[in-house]
Write a structure and sequence with these properties.
The complex is a heterodimer of chains A (about 250) and B (about 375). Chain A is of the alpha/beta class. Chain A has helices spanning about 40-50, 70-75, 95-110, 125-135, 150-165, 180-195, 210-215, 230-235, 240-245; strands at about 1-15, 15-25, 30-35, 55-60, 65, 80-85, 170-175, 200-205, 215-220, 225-230. Chain A is globular, with a radius of gyration of 19 Å. In chain B, helix 4 (about 65-85) runs parallel beside helix 6 (about 115-135), helix 4 crosses helix 11 and helix 5 (about 90-110) packs across helix 6 (about 115-135).
């Protein structure tokens, strides 16, 4: 069964056809990678899923509910979490607070007037946030100010912020960009563990090592359309993909 | 409503704060500020700045129109005196509520924009309120003269309870205690302590944490599943209520209200107070408000005669020269001193006076308590 169904999505920016007639079915419980050269429209497509952009035409259905025209916080509330390319979030707050905020949003909804009892009394929520920080290997740094973390740590923090919400669908925009090889491998292991929990993932990634370690299925986007969609092992040898990516050279 | 008592450090801060406010007349006497009129101003502007800081310090939204709510509070309080009773309690309650109501309307529209556009919108609304109070709304505000009590006022509650003030214009009184002088200060002081306690609860609450996250990155907070607009609006309304309350207290200590309370200079003043004291800190705005009102009082009271005396140790030529220069910075020109002081603080202590306090504390600890502290606290406690 597909959890996210994208049909005939078009998006133009002035004279540029950023997305044209994109069709995509994301299987529930799968890891679906979207690859493609720079400017293929990958991030634009992801932006259409979370309410950052509205397509000119087409439909985006999540579990039978349209994601078009509803606000970002509403999309998050129904179970779609997104990891952005830039990992800067609440820089002045501590790491633990960074993770507690999405946990509050999950428990209390998009708005709750919760101004009297102190944060210090939220024991169980704090435990849950600490547990997620443990999951991504940041438990020891929970008291640090988020801005002072390394870039790799910031990316892992963002993952903890998404996981604490138990999302149904996790959208990852280049989760390992700018990471050292060891960090990348750690992140792959972490994402594999997340996948075993049954969380559906859509991953945009340039690093083919990451893509082929994780993906159950790969869609190749070029010039705003899906040119190929197949299992990873079949994608490697596909001449259309090699054409789009490297102008004919081998992957 | 469980657990009304804050954690240990906060409780300590609250007790010290309350004690300092109550002992204000004695503590500030050596500085020449131990008289009730000035103390009342300290308390009232302290409340105004605490409320402003809940908006500006926590959410980062810089309002340039908070004097409008101050003015609304004053007018509401005077009308409550005229119509209901000279008792200050209904007056401050209505002033707070109406301040909040105006903030809801103005905030609802202004918060559609962020950054400088938000500031301009609030400034525009405040100037509109100021001009309305001067012109169209004269039947309510009494225009240029200002709203005053008259002997013909109905004061239905006072009449119902058989209180007759005779032929004089009464001051506000709390069950017989006149709200001028020291009783007036203590009334404002108690309200200030309550306001400080409420602000402390808000700062430590999940709501306060959301507001800080909103200041840090409002866009991403939306993608985290939080609807940021109602959070910002609630903070705006709370700060409007604080401003209304402060305006109400002004009328309690001196029962009249004028449109000049809504002028943009008054809005700017509370911004200066908050930044001078320390934006986003609990205590900073109160200290900033106190500092500005203190300097206003001290420097604007200086005149040439006093300067001549101060510089009398100099030879006559130099004395006249020194007086000629320094007289520009006192009396009417005290704003020059304030401006210079403000520049120094912003350049050298961007965190305001509270940053200065923190630096001194750290210096002292490093100098004298460093070794002892290290052995007592081996590991820093996480978070908080």
């Amino acid at each position: 069964m597909s959890i996210l169904s994208v049909q005939n999505v078009n998006k133009r920016f002035g004279g540029l056809n950023a997305l044209s007639e994109v069709n995509l079915e994301i299987e529930e419980g799968s890891v679906h990678a979207i690859i493609g050269p720079n400017g293929a429209g990958k991030s634009t497509l992801l932006n259409c899923f979370v309410g950052r952009l509205v397509p000119d035409s087409g439909t985006v259905m999540f579990n039978g509910q349209s994601l078009l025209g509803i606000k970002p916080h509403e999309i998050n509330q129904i179970g779609v979490s997104r990891v952005f390319q830039t990992p800067e979030i609440f820089g002045e707050l501590t790491l633990l607070e960074n993770v507690m905020i999405p946990a509050f949003a999950k428990r209390d909804g998009a708005f709750k007037m919760h101004a009297w009892s102190p944060v210090a009394d939220e024991g169980s929520l704090r435990e849950k946030a600490l547990e997620m920080l443990g999951e991504v290997g940041l438990a020891a740094k929970s008291g640090e100010i988020a801005d002072q973390l390394s870039r790799g740590d910031k990316r892992r923090r963002v993952l903890a912020m998404c996981l604490v919400q138990d999302p149904k669908l996790l959208l990852l925009d280049e989760p390992t960009a700018g990471m050292a090889r060891a960090d990348t491998n750690n992140t792959i292991d972490l994402l594999k563990r997340i996948a075993t929990k049954g969380i559906t993932m859509v991953v945009i990634e340039h690093d083919m090592h990451v893509v082929f370690s994780l993906a159950d299925k790969i869609s190749v986007l070029a010039q705003g359309t899906v040119i190929v969609e197949d299992m990873p092992e079949k994608i490697k040898g596909n001449p259309k993909v090699q054409e789009a990516y490297l102008g004919g050279a081998h992957l | 409503m469980k657990n009304l008592i804050p954690e240990r450090n906060d409780l300590l801060l609250l007790i010290v704060f309350a004690a300092a406010v109550m002992a204000g007349p004695f503590l500030l006497a050596p500085l020449g500020a131990g008289y009730p009129d000035l103390l009342q101003k300290f308390a009232i502007f302290g409340i105004f700045a605490i409320g402003f800081n809940i908006l500006f310090g926590l959410t980062g939204y810089l309002s340039f129109g908070h004097a409008a709510f101050l003015g609304v509070g004053s007018y509401t309080a005077v009308w409550t005196f005229k119509l209901l009773s000279m008792n200050p309690i209904p007056a401050v309650i209505f002033a707070t509520l109406l301040g909040g109501l105006f903030a809801l309307a103005i905030g609802y529209i202004s918060l559609r924009r962020t950054g400088i556009y938000f500031s301009i919108l609030t400034l525009a609304f405040a100037q509109m309120s100021y001009n309305l109070a001067y012109s169209v709304l004269t039947p309510i505000t009494n225009g240029e003269t200002g709203l005053q009590l008259t002997q013909a006022d109905p004061r239905v509650l006072d009449v119902a309870f058989g209180r007759d003030y005779g032929a004089v214009l009464p001051p506000s009184d709390l069950f017989g205690i006149t709200m001028t002088g020291y009783p007036g200060f203590y009334f404002c002081g108690v309200v200030l302590i309550i306001c400080f306690y409420i602000a402390m609860r808000i700062f430590r609450s999940p709501f306060g944490m959301m507001l800080r996250a909103l200041k840090s990155n409002q866009n991403r907070l939306n993608y985290t599943g939080v609807h940021t607009r109602p959070y910002a609006l609630t903070a705006f309304v709370i700060s409007g209520m604080y401003a209304g309350l402060a305006g109400g207290l002004m009328a309690v200590t001196d029962p009249l209200a004028g449109a000049e309370r809504m002028q943009w200079t008054a809005s700017g003043e509370v911004v200066l107070m908050t930044i001078l004291g320390g934006t986003g800190t609990l205590l900073g705005p109160v200290i900033g408000a106190g500092a500005i009102k203190y300097f206003e009082n001290i420097f604007s009271a200086f005149n040439e005669g006093m300067l001549m005396q101060t510089f009398s140790f100099l030879p006559e030529g130099l004395q006249h020269f020194a007086v000629a220069i320094s007289s520009k910075f006192v009396g009417e020109g005290w704003h020059l001193t304030l401006g210079a002081l403000f520049m120094l603080i912003v350049i050298f202590l961007p965190g305001g006076l509270m940053e200065g306090v923190e630096r001194i504390k750290r210096f002292v600890l490093r100098r004298f308590g460093g070794e002892r502290r290290k052995s007592q606290q081996p590991a820093p406690t996480p978070a908080e």
